[in-house]
Amino acid sequence: MIWDYFVAFIFGIVEGITEWLPVSSTGHMIILNEFMKLNVSPEFYDLYLVVIQLGAILAVIVIFWKEIWPFGVKNNEHPFAKDGIGKYIMKDKIIMWLKIALACVPAAIVGVLFDDWLDEHLYNYVVVAIALILFGIAFIVVERFMKGKDPRIKTVNQLNWGHAVAIGLFQLLAAVFPGASRSGSTIVGSIAIGIKREAAAKFTFFLAIPVMLGASLLKILKYDGSVSGHEIGLLLVGMVTAFGVSLLVINRLMAFIRKHSFTVFGWYRIALGVIVLILGAAGVIGGGVLQGAA
Q1: Residues 160 and 206: beta-carbon distance below 8 Å
Q2: ∠ Cα 43 49 51 (to 5°)
Q3: Which pLDDT band holds residue 294 (cuts at 50, 70, 90)?
Q4: Whole-angstrom Cα distance, residue 190 to residue 170?
Q5: Phi-psi bin for 40: left (phi > 0), alpha (psi -120 to 50), beta?
Q6: What is the per-residue pLDDT across 57-90, written as a single tens digit (0 to 9) for each?
Q7: How much is the pTM?
């Protein structure tokens, strides 16, 4: 039992790191699960990998609270009205959330309609490895193409409705192809259409709030098994660990991208994809269904 909590702790660390870095949490979870397994049912393991993301999401809410909370009088430079309830509503943040909602639509439709089919047919190590490699190459190509160019969109508030739709389509790639990385596909896609790295990363983090809350809710509603006290403990350990690690990773990542490109993550993804293929060919990783996050 103690070993299970230790494994849950390690999974929380990996989740807290890879959920925000554009390197695919799925690829890392696949490898980790081959060497450290939770003593739980496959159904609960599937639930566990999704629900511990709630800890990571809480870190985003804590770090960016002032930038995402749309109510209050203090520092409200764009109120809906000068008097009444309107003065407590921040118009710019409400519009931002509407754009986030729009960006969620493509992945939400696909997730609700095809979640089980995607799990059955695409969640295997070959698809994950190929996605890791191809999106790694995309990172390198996009960064080289955009090198020296001044991004047209420098802040989240400058994103228009068209940008929101485009980012939503980039996110759809991660919803369909495990290993693409939700943060990776949206960030590299945003950079490609002229959005500054910092603004792209922030919008991606904000977008993760409804997406991951929705994914967790969907998994919880579809879960038809019972949950023991031991399993609840494993969830809590994973969530709390993911929360603490995410606080560190998000702050460090924001500092990193102000000075560096994402090219290093592209090379890392390619290397990880090759490792996954080698482990699969060697029989270390099975070819069955592999549940996990993007």
Answers
A1: no
A2: 95
A3: low
A4: 8
A5: beta
A6: 999 999 999 999 999 888 788 788 888 888 889 9
A7: 0.85
